[in-house]
Amino acid sequence: MKKKIGELSLQVIPFSELSDLGISERVKKVLSLVLDNKIAIIQGRLRAEEEARLIEDTMVLVDRVKNFKGIELAVIEPDMKGAGIFAKAKQAIANSLVGNNNALTVVGPASIIKEIKRNPKKIELMIK
Amino acid sequence: MLRILKSFAKRIFRSIFKKREHIKIGFYGPPNAGKTSIANKICKDWTGEEIGTISKIPHETRKVQFKERVEIEHKGKKLTFKIADTPGIATRIDYEDFLKYGLKKSVAKKRAKEATQGVIDAIKWLDDMDAIIAVLDASENPYSQVNITILGNIAARNIPVLVVANKIDLKNADVEQVKAAFPDYEVIGISAKEGTNFDELYESLFKLADKI
Fold first, then answer.
1. What is the pTM of this model?
2. Which of A24, B125, B128, B166 could bond to B34 as cystine, CB 3.0-4.6 Å?
3. For the sheet containing A9-13, what is the strand order?
4. Which of these, B91, B156, B150, lies nearest to A31 by C-alpha position?
């Protein structure tokens, strides 16, 4: 008997699609994909307050939407630990001007992603 | 962004115009890291009463709970704290996870509903804290996005923070890994269960109070 392989849908959101949106719209856009059972791969990372808002709005949806159990979230950033002061400063200035679009943010529904395991060197997406 | 700016302005205003009667210190972290166990030990040591109940089942604390006027004395100095023990911050809550602990379906569903509101409340109360103790489980991988989001939000609000790696009594606890994950923060390892390193915690708490 063949084992059925579930459908896994990834959607990449370029930085340009989010850069002009306010915090509510950004979070709404990400959560609408997740509610559609898609894994969103965002170019860049959300700001700290946007990540907090994402968690808050996720909790509201867990409470209101049947079978929605939440999200798994991870940010992959280039390792700047070994970089020189000039490179770090350049990155910090670029981040403050145009946002941190060097990173990748992965957000998916908890019903599909069991766990995102990460350590400094790798990131593993554990699918259910 | 507006919330953070408001919080920042409030903190500046408060520091200039208001005499501080007590320091509001919040315990933040993921579920089951031991926030209530640490807060209980501190409250019991200095007031004789605990702040909340603890359980192996995640999300035991589902409302922000306070202990007023906790006067701590350390090396001849006295400080009065208002301690806030907050619900664990999580990105997923599934009532079925609670069934594994033997809870009835209706009880598990109620717990999940209260837990979601608890997460929202914990984040909202962040703006009201003078200082934060971020409690992580030293036996778990520290690189979880929840830990990073919590610390990122504390930093964005410019709130002084101390990272406490709890459960160092466990065999697989690794405080050095927590330190490596968060090199920009002061990290201390403790065991709330065994009462280990609480002197160091009080020392760091007083240093934290100086940064407010």
1. 0.87
2. B166
3. A9-13, A38-43, A104-109, A71-76
4. B91
- Report how far residue A83's alpha carbon sits from residue B87's, in angstroms, rounded to the nearest whole number: 38
The answer to whether B69 and B42 have CB atoms below 8 angstroms apart is no
pLDDT in tens, B53-85: 999 999 999 999 999 999 999 999 999 999 999
Residue B90, class by beta-carbon neighbours within 10 Å (0-12 exposed, 13-18 middle, 19+ buried)? buried
Name the minimum distance, in Å, from the CA of A67 to any CA of chain B: 9
Which DSSP symbol is given to B126? G
Kindly report the number of other CB atoms within 10 A of residue B141's CB atom: 16
Q: Report the chain B residue with the minimal C-alpha distance to residue A81.
A: B183
The ipTM estimated for the assembled molecules is 0.88
Flag if A118 and B116 touch (Cβ within 8 Å): no
Q: pLDDT (tens digit, 9 = 90+) per residue, A64-111?
A: 999 999 999 998 877 655 656 666 666 566 555 555 667 889 999 998
B152 interfacial to chain A (CB closer than 8 Å): yes
B73: three-class secondary structure by DSSP: strand
Contact predicate B144/A72, CB 8 Å? no
| Closest by Cα among B160, B168, B158 to B188 | B168
Query: Which residue in chain A has the smallest CA separation from B118?
Result: A59
Instruction: Tell me the per-residue pLDDT of B150-173, one tens digit each, with 9 for 90 and over.
Output: 999 999 999 999 999 999 999 999
